Amino acid sequence: MLLNYIKIAWRNIIRNKAFSAINVLGLSLGMACSLLIFLWIKDELNVDNFHANGPQLYNVMQRQYYDGKVDAGKYTPGILADELKKLFPEIVYAASYTGWDAQMTFAVGDKINKESGHWAGADWFKMFTIPLLAGTPQTALNSPNSLAISRKVAEFYFGNPVAALGKSIRIDNKQDYQVNAVFENLPENSSDKYDFLLNWQDCIARNPWMKQWGSNGPHTRIMVRPDANIASLDAKILPLLRKYNKEDMGKGFDAQLFLQAYPDSYLYSNFRNGKQDGGRIEYVRLFSIVAVFLLLIACINFMNLATARSVKRAKEVGVRKVIGAVRSVLAGQFIGEALLFTFLALVVALALVFFLLPQFNTLTGKHISLNSTQYSFWLLLIGMALLTGLIAGSYPALFLSSLEPVRVLKGSLKFGSGARLFRQGLVVFQFVLSMLLIVGTIIVYRQVNYVQTTNLGYDRENLLYIPIEGDLATMSTYKTFKDELLRKPGIMSVSSMQEAPNNIGSSTGGIKWPGKDPNSNIEFTQTAVGYDLIKTLKLTVEGRDFSPEFGTDTTNYLINEAAARRIDNKNKVTGSLVGQPITMWNRPGKIVGVLKDFHFQSLHIPITPIILRLGTDLDRHNFIIRTQPGQTTQALASIETLWKEMNPKFPFAYRFIDDEYQKLYKSEAVVGSLANYFAFLAIFISCLGLFGLSAFMAEQRTKEIGVRKVLGASVGGVISLLSKDFLKLVLIAIVIASPLAWYAMNQWLQGFAYKLDIEWWIFALAGLLAIGIALLTISFQSIKAALMNPVKSLRSE
């Protein structure tokens, strides 16, 4: 019997080639897109989950109550790790870690190259599952001059990992470090990215401010005992900073420590008002919903086409019931047919995924592969196919198996309003989902375009930065290099900054000025800059820039309008602050200029008060260089030539500010691109079903159309007759989807401090697109039916 059912199913597929092709194509597209999304979700969920001690690893976070607000992040004092390990027996290992990327110049003989890495505590390799190819976890980072390097670095400089052990590498042409360990290249599913690690004591020696309990920046990670009570430990570490930082506490400032599970830190990285508030997990949830949407749209296609063509199968059902077939057997037969369709579609979907995966990886920045050797991959495929087949085949099976044999075999079969309404409801549901994706695509595109093109308050075009290193870090050589650059063709202006202008993150408190409330502690973003910054960035200023003509500028300051409003919150006149005394880090000076507010961080973050000081220590600064429009290539060649003349022991490396700014919105750009593709596919799949339904309806009403044409109906009238019912459904879908889309996208936009409004025309445009696409889909069959010769359709009457 089973073989007989398979034969019948296959014959139906062959007999109805057009409808079978529509069903298989719709299901395969839905399954292919869903499979790609599921692979991406799996990759996201696997990030940082490869560490054997994962459940025992935690980030120590800090929550700061500051300036009337609450902030939270991974920033902690640089000496916290050792203190935690000493005070709390629940903590087995603790390690500090620099959250910022250090680009350093490695030299071994005549091999010189830039490498990317961090500083980390001595317990690092005891905590994290990073295989060592040479050396041991105990000795990898056990001394100030110890160095751990990746396999890639070891092979580049020494040929192989074993040969690298015990050798010396000169870093930044200043100091030799000994290779105490070689670790395997970090896997792609690691959120930490580095090719070398230096001992934490070396970082402390380079940055004396890290010895202070009131200075934050580094990350702190701990590993607890398996039996540790995390809630109890969390409560015990909470007030710790108050003990060591008594000077600042109680003056409008408080700091608390808390724990976040390390495996959660990648997906749950955002904090608002001191509490965890999403992160990449929001995109995981979003694309999970999109995957389900696409599968549902494909399944609805199958349901609609199967029930619409039920007249063709009615006599078969009647005959089977007369000869003794029970409803459950018939239902099983039709579900089996749906599963056959689904597994055929799965084969097509796998082929699509195989060809699309490289482009998908390029778009998302992933390295996903089809792991056909893993049983979990096949379980996912089989589970998806079974679920899709059961959902797609459930209603057609129940509907067809419920037909009464007497009515069917009499030829008096008429479908009630319930079946018609159900089909219409499915069409509406399809277009509601499609409308949601269209609106989402338009809003995401507009917001991403807005953040990428908005005026930041400075001109980021033709602007690049180069790390100041080697001999150029001395003030005299820096000045010579700058003067020489300004003589080169294509160079407009040169300055320097401690951080890139698009990502200034360092902050401080304790800024004082006459009349300040002694109980308030306002947080200021801060950085050091060089002369000619305003000219180079093209900032607008009330007052003046730092200038070598004013020797006292080494103790003076520039502030932005946001800072001026906090300082002079009564008069609201920012320019009046020029010349006012101000003290930073117990260094008194005065305000020489008030800068018009500019964006120095992501547009996810509001513009905050910033104070700029004149930098005299050029170590870890960057040249900020503006080139003449259209002469960037010539300017780069000139810069590189001069660099090699004056700083030959360091490779020339530069970055464009505009490129770095775009990276701030990489996730949003990826979401926007994926939304475009998925919205198109959702509409396409929906239209496949609409095309099939309109063809079926035209076929069912062939004689009616013939009679109408004989009685004088025009071609336009017939087209309107066949189209209006479908267009009504699309209009209903638009009405239902619009408020849902507004709510969903309004929630997404809350993640941006600066965002566009959701305007009414977006829904009008999306609705017109949906109507237009639906009308084009239906019109082919409608026009074909309207142009048919009525003699042919009425010949049998």
TrEMBL record:
Domain ABC3 transporter permease C-terminal, chain residue ranges per copy: 289-405, 678-790
Membrane topology designation: Multi-pass membrane protein
InterPro entries referenced in this protein's UniProt entry, alphabetically: ABC3_permease_C (IPR003838), MacB_PCD (IPR025857), Macrolide_Exporter_MacB (IPR050250)
UniProt keyword annotations, A-Z: Cell membrane, Membrane, Transmembrane, Transmembrane helix
One Pfam family in the UniProt entry: FtsX
Sample GO molecular function, one term: transmembrane transporter activity
Superkingdom of origin organism: Bacteria
Ranges annotated as spanning the membrane: 21-41, 286-308, 329-357, 377-400, 421-445, 677-698, 726-745, 760-780
Ranges where the MacB-like periplasmic core domain occurs: 20-237, 456-637
Protein name per its UniProtKB record: FtsX-like permease family protein
Naturally occurring in which organism (per UniProt): Spirosoma arboris
